[in-house]
């Protein structure tokens, strides 16, 4: 499973708007379909490696892409067949069908298969699950290699419905931009490997995938304070805060202070007993506070939150600190990153609806904070609507303590200054890159045992 790094993501409605804008700029929708079909044909030709291809065409423009691909594959000498679910229903699809000079079979239960199936039945904009008889028909092709055009048929492209396609794809070729379904559960695994075919659409970059991870190199004149000083609050479960402190140091902070009375996990971490927040609140060198890892709800947590919020110092809030701070964030402009997992998110933002992207965006706007909605399909949302989707992550991160590590990494990135959204995206990228580097058997301590 993979998706391109730093790729644009568009909903079905945004895709239609982008196509219309492209047409107004002088590139007709027919030209876009020709480009899309050419991209499908090129990739199908490579996947098939000389074997016969069966293209399944629907009545809409997705089917039109399939007819264009068939014509181009035939011109290359490929043994290509077309099977239609229904006659073309749009002008573009009709024109594409008319340009195809081969036979069109009817998509029925007894249609002969082929080594490669190109699924050009529905694409984006589907508003209901496929009918049972069509689903059963498509399952007959299971075991063949499947190339889906834009999204596998039966998937809600906006990622706001949990339908799964009857025929999962080995490869999905996204046209112009990725769609939310490519990066959100439960549909992302059914899309297989996602590739992006740029067809000349100027896609809005407010939603995009995670950039390729990079190592931030300190400036030539850097010193430990300019690289960022992070203060980690420690509650009764001090191991969680210790993981956050080690992560902050490994992720690039120059100086890390950990509240508590247990030995530091790394010798360079400064451990201060007592109320380190009270001592450090007036220290202008502190670039970020991290509050929440291993810290249950209660008066002690509330006191630290009140002091941190009053100081206007940038904050990373995790676990119980999120709902405790939320009433104080909605009207402020403090630079804050929230890091809830699914359960914490549901408790903090019970009224959020829609896809995971929709919910993360609504939560960020409500809290006036950057939200990292954690999970296998992590979504980072900014209050201004920007989104970064981090699919796929690493399944080995599904273990205790890895969220504490992410909170510490956020602290390091935030303490450097700059945009909190960029800091959150960088922390998520660091977190996933560390996990992939370590691989099987990962435990949270491994993430901070060695640098990236």
UniProtKB/TrEMBL annotation:
Catalyzed reactions per annotation: (6S)-NADPHX + ADP = AMP + phosphate + NADPH + H(+); (6S)-NADHX + ADP = AMP + phosphate + NADH + H(+); (6R)-NADHX = (6S)-NADHX; (6R)-NADPHX = (6S)-NADPHX
Alphabetized InterPro entries for the sequence: CARKD (IPR000631), Nnr (IPR030677), Ribokinase-like (IPR029056), YjeF_N_dom (IPR004443), YjeF_N_dom_sf (IPR036652)
Binding site for K(+): 62, 119, 153
One GO molecular-function entry: ATP binding
GO biological process, one term: metabolite repair
Cofactor note: Binds 1 potassium ion per subunit.
Keywords from the named record: ATP-binding, Isomerase, Kinase, Lyase, Metal-binding, Multifunctional enzyme, NAD, NADP, Nucleotide-binding, Potassium, Transferase
Every YjeF N-terminal domain range: 15-207
Cofactor field: K(+)
Domain YjeF C-terminal: 207-452
Top-level EC class as recorded in UniProt: isomerase
Signal peptide extent: none
Superkingdom to which the source organism belongs: Bacteria
Binding-site positions, (6S)-NADPHX: 61-65, 123-129, 150
The protein's Enzyme Commission number: 5.1.99.6
SUPFAM superfamilies: Ribokinase-like, YjeF N-terminal domain-like
Family note: In the N-terminal section; belongs to the NnrE/AIBP family.
Role this protein plays: Catalyzes the epimerization of the S- and R-forms of NAD(P)HX, a damaged form of NAD(P)H that is a result of enzymatic or heat-dependent hydration. This is a prerequisite for the S-specific NAD(P)H-hydrate dehydratase to allow the repair of both epimers of NAD(P)HX.
NCBIfam families: yjeF_cterm, yjeF_nterm
Protein name per UniProt: NAD(P)H-hydrate epimerase
């Amino acid at each position: 499973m993979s998706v391109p790094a730093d790729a644009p993501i568009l909903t079905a409605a945004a895709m239609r708007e982008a196509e219309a804008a492209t047409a107004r700029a002088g590139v007709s929708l027919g030209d876009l379909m020709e480009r899309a079909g050419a991209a499908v044909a090129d990739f199908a030709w490579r996947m098939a490696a000389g074997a016969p291809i069966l293209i399944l065409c629907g009545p809409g423009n997705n089917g039109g892409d399939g007819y264009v691909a068939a014509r181009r594959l035939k011109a290359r000498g490929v043994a290509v067949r077309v099977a239609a679910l229904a006659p073309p229903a749009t002008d573009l699809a009709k024109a594409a069908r008319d340009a195809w000079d081969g036979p069109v079979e009817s998509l029925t239960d007894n249609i002969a298969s082929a080594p490669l199936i190109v699924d050009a039945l529905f694409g984006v904009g589907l508003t209901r699950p496929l009918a049972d008889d069509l689903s059963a028909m498509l399952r007959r092709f299971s075991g063949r290699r499947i190339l889906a055009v834009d999204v596998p048929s039966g998937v809600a492209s906006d990622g706001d419905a949990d339908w799964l396609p009857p025929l999962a794809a080995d490869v999905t070729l996204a046209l112009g931009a990725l769609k939310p379904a490519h990066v959100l559960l439960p549909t992302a695994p059914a899309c297989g490997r996602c590739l992006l075919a740029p067809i000349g659409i100027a896609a809005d970059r407010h939603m995009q995938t995670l950039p390729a991870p990079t190592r931030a190199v300190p400036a030539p004149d850097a010193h430990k304070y300019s690289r960022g000083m992070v203060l980690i609050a420690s509650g009764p479960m001090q191991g969680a805060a210790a993981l956050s402190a080690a992560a902050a140091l490994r992720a690039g902070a120059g100086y890390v202070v950990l509240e508590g009375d247990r030995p530091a996990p790394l010798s360079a971490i400064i451990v201060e007993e007592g109320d380190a927040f009270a001592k450090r609140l007036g220290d202008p060198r502190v670039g970020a506070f991290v509050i929440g890892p291993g810290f249950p709800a209660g008066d002690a947590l509330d006191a630290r939150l009140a002091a941190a919020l009053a100081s206007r110092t940038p904050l990373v809030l995790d676990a119980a600190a999120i709902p405790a701070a939320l009433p104080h964030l909605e009207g402020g402009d403090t630079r804050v990153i929230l890091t809830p997992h699914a359960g914490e998110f549901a408790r903090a933002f019970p009224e959020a609806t829609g896809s995971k992207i929709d919910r993360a965006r609504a939560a960020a706007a409500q809290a006036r904070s950057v939200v990292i909605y954690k999970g296998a399909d992590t979504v980072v949302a900014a209050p201004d609507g920007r989104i970064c989707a981090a699919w796929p992550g690493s399944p080995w991160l599904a273990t205790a303590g890895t969220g504490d590590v992410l909170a510490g990494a956020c602290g390091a990135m935030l303490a450097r200054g700059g945009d909190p959204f960029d800091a959150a995206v960088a922390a998520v990228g660091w977190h996933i890159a560390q996990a992939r580097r370590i691989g099987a058997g990962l435990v949270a301590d491994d993430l901070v045992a060695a640098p990236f």
